[in-house]
Design goal:
This protein is of the alpha+beta class. The protein has 1 helix and 7 strands; from the N terminus they run αβββββββ.
Length: about 130
Amino acid sequence: MFKRVLLISTILLSASVLFAQPYSISDAKAEGPSTPRLIVLRDERGGVEAAICPEQGGELSGMRVLFRGRWVELLDKARDYRPSEDWRGKAPLLWPATGRTAPNGYNWKGKFYPMPAHGFVQNMPWKLE
């Protein structure tokens, strides 16, 4: 009887380890007065975590790796949305332009369309589905 219980327990424990979901998705708040919502994606097995800010064009606002048992942030000013006069850090999505268009826009089929530096997507809020 004991061997059967031990065998069943071992099988159940092995199954829970093998089929356990190593990934998680959670909400977090950024630092600063506006504190936008962040979506945190974590891979426990791979030791990597990404924070995405839907309100700021889906930008990558944090990237952490597990190093010697501690989560280490890789991005400058990650998750920090306090007002700043210099570069605000993070990794915005730059689309459809990665630099300044000349002269601040583009012509298409005879019509001029204004385009800010780095495109228009980086500050557009994203809708989560």
